[in-house]
Specification:
Structural class: alpha+beta
Distance between the termini: 62 Å
Number of domains: 1
Number of strands: 5
Strand content: 15-25%
Largest sheet: 5 strands, mixed
CATH class: Alpha Beta
CATH architecture: 3-Layer(aba) Sandwich
Order of helices and strands: HEHHEEEHEH
Strand order of the largest sheet: 2-1-3-4-5
């Protein structure tokens, strides 16, 4: 095994710090929650989760906490993704493949626009206002 240099160790530390920063909820104002029950994983939730992380990284978006949860009870529409953004209704999107995951980042997170065709649950209009 090759010996590590001081520069190698500094790079490793920086990479780990960046990974930890992504998981710190203290500096985030939005959340994307991916259903990772067995039904979600079987339907591709791990790929969906990875794509969301990659899209946020590619766009330099750091104010969004991405986390996982268990089954959301919407097994026939897995993978499911809940999105919580300030001043927008909390919604759950269904059948979220990698393309829809990219669309969630682009439309919902960046442009603050709901993706109506993929929404499974959202509050009724009289609750929002």
């Amino acid at each position: 095994m090759a010996k590590l240099t001081l520069d190698d160790l500094r790079k490793m530390r920086e990479q780990k710090q960046q990974q930890l920063e992504k998981r710190d909820p203290g500096n985030k104002d939005a959340q994307i929650i991916v259903g990772m029950g067995t039904c979600g994983i079987a339907a591709g939730a791990k790929e969906t989760f990875g794509t969301i992380i990659e899209e946020l990284d590619a766009r330099g978006i750091t104010n969004v906490l991405v986390r996982q949860t268990g089954c959301m009870g919407l097994c026939s529409h897995e993978p499911t993704v809940e999105v919580v953004v300030p001043d927008m209704p909390v919604v759950i999107y269904g059948d979220v493949n990698t393309e829809v995951a990219k669309q969630i980042v682009a439309d919902h997170i960046v442009n603050k626009k709901l993706i109506d065709a993929r929404i499974l649950q959202k509050p009724s209009a009289d609750i929002i206002g």
